[in-house]
Amino acid sequence: MRRELFAILVLVLAVLFLMSVIEFYKTNVEQADARKFVMEELKTKYPTGDIEIISVQEMNSNGSKYFKINAKVTLNSAGPCPERMHIFFNYPEQNFVSQPPEYITKDCKICVSKLNCPVLFSEEAIIASHTFDGTEEVQKYVNEEKGVFSLANEKEKSWVVTWDSPFSGYYYEVEISKNASVLGIKKIKKED
Fold it and tell me: Per residue in 161-172, pLDDT tens?
């Protein structure tokens, strides 16, 4: 009797374990499919954009499961005025029809949809580093030098944006606080 009870218990646990593995696999396959479809949709719509899925959340509504997907698209990421937008999808609830994009940067401006917002993203830091009051010399460098490129590095409370050109004997480092102010500008001579 004891053996039979033990065997039944093991069998029940095995069935429960198998069901949980199947459900886990099913969720991941669906999530992978949702991610893949969103990436394909965005690559088709924005073929020159830098695309990234920021988050995927599994949701339940009235016993029906769907995924909330937040994606980032950056256009002109190598230029002085990158355009960043966040695009939201609900799958399969909306059959991958996206909501209108939320613009983070547009037309070389940050805080497109808000006033007095913090500088949270590298695209915002790049734009701020040559458009904020006090950055006129950097703007002149960006406009006049050929082959100018930027690199934004995030620190704890600020961004450091480096502006460089292979045709110039110097480059700039601009520090922008995440509270949206210029902390400093360094003009640095390149070593020969």
Answer: 999 999 999 999
In SS3 terms, 97-112 reads as CCCCCEECEECCEECC
Q: Which amino acid is at 184?
A: G
Residues 39 and 96 in one domain: yes
Residue with tokens 């480059």: 171
Residue 147, sorted as left (phi over 0), alpha (psi -120 to 50) or beta, turns out to be left
Tally of domains within the chain: 2
User: What does pTM read for this prediction?
Assistant: 0.78
Candidates 76, 50, 75, 78; CA nearest to 165 is: 78
Same domain, 95 and 34: yes
Q: Give 48's contacts (C-beta < 8 A, 6+ positions apart).
A: 75
Looking at the structure, tell me whether residues 16 and 96 fall in a common domain. Answer: yes
CA distances 137 to 131, 172, 174, Å, are 10, 9, 11
Asked if residues 44 and 37 have their Cβ atoms less than 8 Å apart, the reply is: no
What percent of the chain is predicted at pLDDT more than 70? Answer: 81
In a domain, 169, yes or no: yes
Q: Do 123 and 99 sit in the same domain of this protein?
A: no
Rounded-to-5 percentages of helix, strand, coil across the chain: 35, 35, 30
